[in-house]
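Need a sequence for this fold. Nothing fancy.
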């Protein structure tokens, strides 16, 4: 089964109809032919953003949480291990002058540990940074490159 690691951008866009990536992100998450992996830090970042930065945020946060918790095998929340956190810290250290924070670094660390090359993000800066530092050299940015 194909797996897709989700950054917060596509998740936010799916629940925020005003987001410019709404249509593409909604389609991707609905049509992905496999499992959607949400790192625990991404879950928190998505909830926080929806609640505090989107009109009707508390209701959207609840819709998002209900979708994640009721969907069964489609969504899986991944809790980073201690090794994942160490790798994330190493990535942040490597890119300390770049805008790579813990959440994005955790997505990269999980892609490496789980050998998941497919990543959903709307953040082009993240794409460039991750491609430079990840040990997974075949990372695929499915919103930008397609996923068929």
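Here you go.
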């Amino acid at each position: 089964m194909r797996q897709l690691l989700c950054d917060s951008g596509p998740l936010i866009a799916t629940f925020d109809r005003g987001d410019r990536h709404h249509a593409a992100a909604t389609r991707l998450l609905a049509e992905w032919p496999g499992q959607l992996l949400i790192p625990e830090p991404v879950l928190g970042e998505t909830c926080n953003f929806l609640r505090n930065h989107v009109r009707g945020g508390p209701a959207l946060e609840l819709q998002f949480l209900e979708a994640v918790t009721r969907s069964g095998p489609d969504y899986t929340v991944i809790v980073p291990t201690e090794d994942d956190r160490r790798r994330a810290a190493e990535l942040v250290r490597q890119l300390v002058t770049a805008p790579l924070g813990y959440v994005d670094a955790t997505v990269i660390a999980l892609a490496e540990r789980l050998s998941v090359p497919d990543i959903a993000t709307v953040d082009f800066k993240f794409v460039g940074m991750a491609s430079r530092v990840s040990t997974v050299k075949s990372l695929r940015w499915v919103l930008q490159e397609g996923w068929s």
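For context: The longest helix spans residues 40-53.
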